[in-house]
Amino acid sequence: MFKIHSSKKRNPWAWVPTLYFAEGVPYVAVMTISLIMYKRLGLSNTDITLYTSWLYLPWVIKPLWSPFVDMLKSKRWWIVTMQLLIGAALAGVAFTIPGPWWLQGSLCFFWLMAFSSATHDIAADGFYMLGLDQHDQAYFVGIRSTFYRIATIFSSGLLVGLAGALQVLTRNIRYSWSLVFYLMAGLFIALWLYHSWALPKPSEDGERMQRSVSGILNEFRQTLVTFFQKPQVWAGICFMLFYRMPEGLLAKISALFLVDSGHNGGLGLSDGEYGLVQGTVGVIGLTLGGILGGFAASRDGLKRWLWPMVMAITLPDLVYVYLSYVLPQSLFIINVCVFIEQFGYGFGFSAYMLYLIYYSQGEHKTSHYALCTAFMALSMMIPGLFAGALQEAVGYQAFFLIVVAACTLTYVVTWFLDIDPEFGKKQEEEESEEV
Q1: HSE on the CB side for 47, CA within 13 Å?
Q2: For the residues 372-382, what does the mean pLDDT come to?
Q3: With 132 labelled, which of 100, 319, 371, 432 sits at a CA distance of 20 to 30 A?
Q4: How many Å is the maximal CA-CA distance in the chain?
Q5: Where are the beta strands (DSSP E) in 265-309?
Q6: What pTM did the predictor assign?
Q7: Contact criterion met (CB below 8 Å) for 79 and 126
Q8: 121-142 tens-digit pLDDT
Q9: 3-class SS at 126?
Q10: For 229-237, which contacts have Cβ atoms below 8 Å and span 24 or more sequence positions?
Q11: Secondary structure of the chain: what % helix, strand, coil (to 5)?
Q12: Sequence-separated (6 or more) residues with CB below 8 Å from residue 377
């Protein structure tokens, strides 16, 4: 059990919820809010998906610099420093939006935000292990996930809706989005100040690893060697890359489809309506699907639920085919469709996350899991790079049909997996805690 200096001890309720709220906000800002903002500022779908998909890169290469986070400074130092940088990046986006170099400037600050957010993820997840004993780690695992989801609803729901309301009041799109990002910057400065006081100071966090760069490189080389020596390595990598390929195509275009104008084939939702549909109802569906998926796998094992989860992550994509052909005006129908798709994605994504844990078992499990998450980010980054160009070439209707056709890849890569029938029942809880 980890020991914490009594003079520096903090009630976990004082910092765990806010820490994971702070982890969620910048990720949503980079991956979701940027899409809607750039759409409102007049960028084409091709440019939006190309530019924003590259922002996945820090999460793809995150395993490369995570050892240096351990070696150079305490995780507490990394957390508060990255929160300050994220606040500065948000302010930078806000400052550049009204200016003549708004695209170059905002992308530059989004890059700073993405790298700072990825580094914050490394430090926060490590600090969670150091700042809590094993009992509290298990107790707060659901709390931290809940507050991450709250951050998602706050950012993609309330903040996007606020941007829409400000556009009505100010009749100035750039000024409205600038105000929203200034608000987010102020929030992060407040979080930085609060966590500078509230985060505990575990004794282990001050005992940094004394390793040389050559030692880190040798360890990373050994991690790579053992990663590629695992059974079914190529089947596993193909699964990591292609299981979510349809979602990689769909994720960014579905958001743009919801807000695009009717004459372009979109549903023409306002920012406030988008905040309700995708940022609130969709997130609730995603969360409920994930909870149900985890419960099902923990009861019967991953192998028992693998194919139902495959169907859950693919078949609901058909709702976007329906929406693109019918173009319903009813907000209720749109909400129901988005909820179904996101609930299915949450349920089906459980199989993906459990397989990453399954593949990472054995020696170097933590490092191998980090490499798996890099493939996970890459699986979203690659299809996103050309999704916008494909959509503009064929239109929304044909694009969503292509997404449904691409779902065959999910079935093919799943077919080649060989999974222990007992994995995911009782053993899964132990693996999740260790990872």
Answers
A1: 11
A2: 91
A3: 371
A4: 64
A5: none
A6: 0.85
A7: no
A8: 988 888 887 888 777 776 787 7
A9: helix
A10: 230/359, 230/362, 230/368, 231/418, 232/416, 232/417, 232/418, 235/413, 235/416, 235/417, 235/418, 236/355, 236/359, 236/417, 237/375
A11: 85, 0, 15
A12: 56, 59, 60, 62
